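Sharing in case it's useful to others searching the archive later.

Someone asked me privately for the predicted structure of Transketolase, so I'm posting the question and my answer publicly. Question first, with the sequence:
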Amino acid sequence: MDTMRDRFAPVVTRLLDEDPRVAVVLAEIGRDGFGEALRRHPDRVINVGIREQLLVGAAAGLALTGMRPVVHTFASFLVERPFEQVKLDLGHQNAGAVLVSAAASFDWPAGGYTHMSPGDVALLDTLDGWTVHVPGHPDEAETLLRHAVAAGDDKVYVRLSVQANRKGRPVDGQHLRTVREGRSGVVVAVGPMLDAVLAATEDLDVTVLYATTVRPFDTAGLRRATESAGTDVVLVEPYLAGTSTAVVNDALADAPHRVLGLGVGRRELRRYGTVEQHVAAHGLDASSLRARIGAFTGLPAPA
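And my answer, the predicted structure tokens:
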């Protein structure tokens, strides 16, 4: 199976052909995928070099002229390093852009901590008006990329990862999708966490909701699920643990409820290892999730 990032350049190249407002802004990373696009649209494929602050600033300038910039690099260089420009050049000026990241929380362990960004969604949560898509499969990434570019002049973040579920599901860029129904709690699986959550909860009487758009959060969809499944809610996110607990608490503010936020821990893991080893170390593999979800909901372990 190809990766989400494998889909990125071909999809955006087609969007460059289809829409004269679309421009691509790169900071070296990803430039090889846009060779043909550069030949066809030399004025709308821009590589600023290893200058991440300029990357965002140039995108904001394009947006202020009426363009729809698509901005790409690793998450740590797209959200964290130029955060002041994200806050001011885009947010303060109300300039829209589509930020598309790669490397996610720990997709390239050999790159070390400089290339990891488990706090990217939490950081964007400090700003107003961002839509955040977290696809769990390359097919979903393609759909959500098109949604993002077509979203007028909105500010959109699309978080791509090498981690992926085995199959893609229909996504609309707005709503939670019910994958399994139960009566003893709700588990929200975000993006590439779905397969592990389904395996972890196979014998548990819980509803499983699938989220590929986490901001704005589908509070109405969550509330509907809790009407039959109860108000014990577990969030399983592929980034910083607890990132979405506040929005769940707000959604259920008028009802007694409990929330458990599972995700990437704050402790830095200083050995490179593999993606799978990092997943396990953060307790996001199926067996660890089974134990943690079971203990929180009080549902019995299998005989």
